[in-house]
Structure of AI-2E family transporter:
Amino acid sequence: MSKVPGWLGRVGASLTRVGERLDERRREAVAEDELPPVPDARVEARGSVPAPPSYAPVVAARPDPVAAIPWGIRVAAEAGWRLLVLAGTLWVLMRVISAVQLVVLAFVAALLVTAMLQPTVARLRRTGLPRGLATAVTAILGFVIMGLVGWFVVWQVMENLDTLSARVRDGIDELKRWLLDSPFHVTESQINDIAENLSDTIGTNTEEITSAGLQGVTVMVEVLTGILLAMFSTLFLLYDGRRIWEWTLKLVPEQARHGVAGAGPRAWRTLTAYVRGTVLVALIDAIFIGLGIWFLDVPMAVPLAVFIFLFAFIPLVGAVISGALAVVVALVTQGVFTALMVLVVVLAVQQIEGHVLQPFILGRAVRVHPLAVVLAVAAGGLTAGIGGAVVAVPLVAVTNTVVGYLRAYSKEQEARLAPPPHGATALATAPVLPPSAQRRSDGEEQS
């Protein structure tokens, strides 16, 4: 019996030691979790970075660079590089056009002449003439009329040149006498000094004047070449314009071909309306201003009327130049009073043209904002001179028509290809009958 308590004591002591060892190991595990791990030499040899300790502060990951840039800056950058591409394309296009400026202007002139003569070809074909004969008759008559107009202007100028020069000398003498008697205290010696300075300037710049004359000869050659190109282009456009347009459509991508095919005839109608309306308005201006100049006994009334007709094709600027030319001729030949009367006639006719004739004749077909007209004429004149100023406004009118049609066509295509409405959308877009029709339908259902 004495051995049993001793055995029990030894068992209890063994259990106590086991518990102490378990507690010690538990404390060692907790301490290992709290302390940084010891780097392994083999891991460092492989070049791996050890994991950070658990007590290290959490660092947020760097965001994507695209997400870090604000939305507005991204939109501006996307629009910016596209605008740069468009600007580069336009610059290259303008360089190409400037390199072949004569050909481009000749073809554009042919388009304008074709738009003016095409209705005549259509009328002749409706009478039964073949296409070739109708084209030949129209082209020959058109070219003969334009040639006669040019010859008439040159003939009238040459016929009245001596009279005009004599009257200009008389007008200069009269101006000299007016300056001497005026309150500006101008002396005869000052007038003679001005005349002498002008003579010296002309004498010292003889080389420049000669080179300008040679350059004028080159310009005349280029003008004749452009006229021949325009004539041949007009013939082919009158005879085979539809086939040329169909061939041009084949160069357009297939997805955009239907829209371009619809915009083409509308652009041509706009161009035709512009050319025919401008010719009619210019003819009315030339007739009425020419009659006013003729009644006031201003020399070269007919050539001035022809100049007014030709300059009317340059919007805004042409009317000012032709009217100023008529006033100057009246001033140096007939005096101040006649010049003022010519100015009144010119302003009256131009006001009637701007507020009555152009809105009535051109109508809605060629409705362009005045600011667009001014900017187009200025840009065309700076780019290609007089030819660019003439072409600028019809180009803007045609572009306006094409852009408007393509916008409407794209909206129609989007509406056609959109999925049909369903659910609440279908109920919201369902057509609503007027009350009278709704009562009628309810009565039919009850019957």
Confidence is low (pLDDT under 50) at residues 40-45.
